[in-house]
Amino acid sequence: MRILVTGGAGFIGSALVRHLVRDLGHSVVTVDKLTYAGTLESLAVLDGDARHAFEKVDVCDADALADVFRRHQPEAVMHLAAESHVDRSIDGPAAFLQTNVIGTYTVLEAARAYRETLPPEAANAFRVLHVSTDEVYGSLGDTGLFTETTAYDPSSPYSASKAASDHFARAWHRTFGLPVVVTNCSNNYGPYQYPEKLIPVVIAKALRGEPIPVYGTGDNVRDWLYVDDHVRALVLAMTHGTPGETYNVGGNAERTNLELVHALCTLLDDLVGEAPSGAYADQITFVADRPGHDHRYAIDATKIETELGWTRQETFESGLRKTVVWTLENQEWSARALDGVGLDRRGVIASSTVEADA
């Protein structure tokens, strides 16, 4: 197939592009604006591969996007381009509204216009996969799981923007007949993850001998999904999913943030040796919680497992070990990704404003 992947230079997007080209033999055109979180280094293994093309295009640029469709003639679109860091959305919501909402609208319109130019057989086979997050569902209590019918209840500017984009995707299917499939996934981890996210932050702070920050008491629960398992689910959803349907993708690996941090510290003790000051866990420091911090996410992936035959290949333990090993072997990549950005905490402006107002 010829597949257009938006956000293909990001963490999940690059894993998807590598899988599509190297493992499945598809032809892919990667569309990416190359913001701070996107880098062509994540796609360097495809340099010189005729099956891969790159277009530096902002998904909000309708004319440029239409030109990409016209020149590359894709048979499917996998839309992953998004601003995705909750803390950044607290500091600067506007970018999330622009990329996640306007960008999704622009992709949907470009895909709709392009599909109308196709002959009937090609138009019927054409697919748009819209990739989203479990955060649109809000927060769970101590029990229960998010299903595809769980009501949306986003808590942050990030999750609100993704919720809006999901609604646009479904509306374009129902109103215009665009064959859209939606997926909502739990927290991803793995190689090439931008270093501001929790797992790479913990590893970087530990190795530098710096305090390892844990929000609140560390009792917030997340369901962790290895990125390669996720991208296999995305391909199944695109190729075998039913247009108009939603598929939740989860790792069945719930851990509190504190449990995750301790697991990472234990792996570092094993793979690196104890830090000069002692065990890496001794560096754990509790910091003020971020505003609107959801207590628990947990995905019920029964639908994609039973209807599409998806299964996870990595356990939490095996995936986490692979991630730590890769990160240790690629510390120069992380350093380049953080050049000029750093690991300073974000998402505290709203908190200090609320305290001042109170």
Describe the structure.
The chain has 13 helices and twelve strands. The protein is an alpha/beta fold and 358 residues long. It has a seven-stranded parallel sheet, sandwiched between helices. A three-stranded mixed sheet has the order 7-9-11. Strands 8-12 form a two-stranded parallel ribbon. Helix 1 (11-23) links the parallel strand 1 (2-6) and strand 2 (27-32). The radius of gyration is 20 Å and the shape is globular. It starts with a strand and ends with a helix. The model is unreliable at 350-358 (pLDDT under 50).
Sum this structure up briefly.
By secondary structure, this protein is an alpha/beta fold. The protein is 44% helix and 16% strand.
Spatial sequence of strands, sheet with the most strands: 3-2-1-4-5-6-10
Query: How many whole angstroms does the radius of gyration measure?
Result: 20 Å
Major sheet details: 7 strands, parallel
How many strands in all? 12
Structural class: alpha/beta
* Approximate helicity band: 40-55%
Uncertain ranges = 350-358
How far apart the termini lie comes to 56 Å
Q: What's the pLDDT, averaged over the residues?
A: 93
Number of helices: 13
Strand content: 15-25%
Shape: globular
Note the run of SSEs as H and E. EHEEHEHHHEHEEHEEHEEHEHHHH
